[in-house]
Design goal:
The complex is a heterodimer of chains A (358) and B (281). Chain A is α+β, with helices and mostly antiparallel strands. In chain A, 23% of the residues lie in helices and 35% in strands. Chain A has a six-stranded mixed sheet, sandwiched between helices. A five-stranded antiparallel sheet of chain A has the order 13-12-11-14-20. In chain A, strands 15-19-16-17-18 form a five-stranded antiparallel sheet, with no helix packed on it. By secondary structure, chain B is mostly helical. Chain B has a single domain, classed as MetI-like fold (Orthogonal Bundle). Chain B is built from 13 helices and two strands; from the N terminus they run αββαααααααααααα. A two-stranded antiparallel sheet of chain B has the order 1-2. The chains are: A alpha+beta (358), B mainly alpha (281).
């Protein structure tokens, strides 16, 4: 996608976040869908709302778009209160999950819709529509009806339609979930490129953690209507705050045990740790565990002997399930190394066992 | 794959039915329209005199135009009532939707005749409406145009055919995916703009179907004018009924019927074309 279509949005006050969600709650009947959510989005940022189905991520998006009203709290955009405005007066645009293209309008008229209803000068419309279609490489389909287009093509039209009004913030509600795996990967990279080039903020909703990791500047992980953790993909992967986050983002081994007299004990694994006595949960990523060929360990490492239960070949890497005694199972990811059997020595860095809240 | 015998057995009864009770009567009607009655006896002598009579006597054209006018008024009134009703039910009725839907349908269970007579007691000079107007001193004498007038016919037919207009419109509104309305708002369209640019075009097939029902059914109606029309509210079907009954001039009645049939068929053809234009699947 090339960048000529949409000029950079007008600069907003740099001191204010582009969008601020303040202590927002939403209940449907007795069901609390969102609990006390506070979140800021900066201009030009790619923020992903990640969560399982039913975690409230789509509801939060719909509150920002204006399709639902918050039960409590406020939403502000660059110094202006947003949640009191009707949806059609908000300067945010949405790419819908199933695209919601107007079936009675062709591609060109779908894209022009936002300009027409807002009374843009007639002379300006064709040029801007052509540019938007060019941006998403859909020029040759300008006069096709949406029902004639493939999922990926509809996706592009939905993007062009949402961007034609030059919003500061684009909301995307699981826009790639209806596409097959290969096309999804392709659209992911196109989306990311497009977002960088036009420089507007994207608020992206997905349940796919890989997608969130690949695209986002920051990830806001939602769990049962509350924010679990908001951080960059690297930060959230390397330092998950909770056991839930550690398990949801990537694969991990959760080690449950306790700290007593500066020794952490989780089953057969023990290591020194200068922390107060308490029960503790640690997240240990499978790739943090390595084979110890000579059976030796450094002082900052933990060594254990385990028998291989299962080995899954994954091309560049191998995923092992090992039993380190007393039925304590761990997953280990190694660089591809050929079939392994029997007992082996493994080591991991103490620093890689991240203490998380339960 | 089904055997040829099976296919024949399955398709024969409906084909036979259509031939016996639809095509044959039409053929008979068509033939009759070219025959004549002389001294109370049907003469099987092919000629165009019936059609010449229709063209030369202005009475028939007058009644036909009045019929078209009444059918047009019914179409307009029932659309003005049926569309907003369907719109409200589909988009804004919330949890009462099912109940309200049943309430719209219930009148269809009541006999046409009963409803016609009910209007007679409402509109008559001793009727409920006149009693009300006089009680509150809006008028001093009974208002006479209420009953036995084209107005009364339009009123009764509108009452009877509004559910027929409502149903297809409601169905088409229910089929509009709700995210489309959100997309429209999202792009900056006010509620009025969303209605004109999304809802109305997408409900066009239902609107056309409902309009066709109201117009075609009114066009052939003879009970409402018989009950509440009086002489000024006579419609073309009443003439046909008289010609086949008291007057005993089947050929002339058949000729009028052929004319009405042609009007109806060309209307159906037209709306069919329009409906195709407005469907997007």
């Amino acid at each position: 996608m090339t960048s000529i279509a949409i000029p950079l949005p007008a600069p907003v006050d740099a001191n204010l976040p582009l969008l601020e969600v303040r202590e927002v709650a939403k209940t449907f009947g007795r069901r609390e869908v969102l609990k006390n959510i506070s979140l800021k989005i900066d201009s030009g940022e790619f923020l992903t709302l990640l969560g399982e189905s039913g975690s409230g991520k789509t509801t939060l998006l719909r509150l920002i778009a204006g399709f639902e009203q918050p039960t409590a709290g406020e939403i502000w955009t660059a110094g202006e209160r947003l949640d009191t405005l009707p949806a059609y007066k908000r300067r945010v645009n949405t790419v819908f999950q199933n695209y919601a293209l107007f079936p009675h309008l062709n591609v060109r008229d779908n894209v022009a819709y936002g300009l027409r209803v807002q009374g843009a000068p007639k002379s300006e419309i064709p040029g801007r529509v052509d540019a938007a279609l060019h941006m998403v490489k859909m020029t040759e389909f300008a006069s096709a009806r949406p029902s004639r287009l493939s999922g990926g093509q509809q996706q592009r039209v939905a993007l062009a339609r949402a961007l034609i009004n030059r919003p500061q913030l684009l909301l995307l509600d699981e826009p790639l979930s209806a596409l097959d795996a290969n096309l999804r990967k392709e659209m992911q990279s196109e989306l990311k490129t497009l977002q960088r080039e036009i420089g507007i903020a994207f608020l992206f909703v997905t349940h796919d953690q890989e997608e969130a990791m690949a695209l986002s500047d920051r990830i806001a992980l939602l769990r049962d209507g509350a924010l679990e953790q908001v951080a960059s993909p690297r930060e959230i992967y390397a330092h998950p705050a909770t056991a839930y986050t550690a398990q949801f983002i990537g694969q991990t081994n959760l080690l449950r045990g306790e700290i007593r007299r500066s020794i952490a004990t989780c089953g057969v694994l023990r290591w020194p740790l200068e922390e107060a006595d308490a029960p503790a949960v640690f997240s240990l990523r499978p790739e943090a565990i390595r084979l110890s060929p000579d059976g030796k360990r450094q002082t900052n490492e933990v060594k254990f002997c385990a028998s291989i239960l299962q080995q899954i070949y994954g091309g560049a890497s191998e995923l092992l399930e090992v039993d380190c005694g007393a039925g304590q199972l761990l997953r280990v990811r190694l660089p591809a190394c050929g079939p392994l059997t029997g007992k082996h020595d493994f080591v991991f860095l103490i620093a890689d066992a991240i203490r998380v809240a339960d | 794959m089904y055997s040829r015998l099976y296919k024949t057995l399955v398709s024969a009864p409906p084909l036979l039915w259509v031939a016996l009770f639809l095509l044959l009567p039409y053929a008979l009607m068509f033939a009759h329209s070219f025959w004549t009655v002389q001294d109370g006896v049907l003469v099987h002598h092919w000629n165009l005199s019936n059609y010449q009579k229709l063209l030369s006597n202005p009475l028939y054209a007058d009644v036909l135009f009045r019929t078209l006018r009444i059918a047009g008024s019914v179409l307009l009134c029932s659309l003005l009532l049926g569309y907003p009703l369907a719109y409200y039910l589909s988009f804004h009725s919330g949890p009462r939707k099912e109940l309200l839907y049943q309430l719209v349908i219930v009148p269809l269970w009541v006999s046409y005749l009963v409803r016609g007579y009910a209007w007679k007691t409402i509109l008559g000079s001793e009727g409920v409406l006149n009693g009300f107007l006089q009680y509150f001193h809006f008028t001093h004498a009974p208002v006479s145009f209420l009953l036995y007038s084209p107005f009364a016919v339009v009123l009764v037919l509108t009452h009877i055919y509004t559910p027929f207009v409502f149903l297809p419109i409601y169905a088409s509104l229910e089929h509009i995916p709700r995210p489309l309305l959100e997309a429209s708002q999202d792009l900056g369209a006010s509620p009025a703009s969303t209605f004109l640019r999304v809802i109305l075009p997408l409900s066009m097939p239902g609107l056309l179907a409902g309009a066709t029902f109201a117009f075609v059914l009114s066009l052939g109606d003879f009970l409402a004018p018989l009950l509440v029309g009086g002489s000024s509210g006579t419609m073309i079907a009443n003439i046909v009924e008289t010609l086949f009954g008291a007057t005993y001039d089947w050929p002339l009645g058949a000729a009028i019927s052929v004319c009405i049939l042609l009007i109806t068929l060309s209307l159906l053809f037209l709306t069919e074309r329009l409906e195709k234009r407005w469907s997007f699947k």
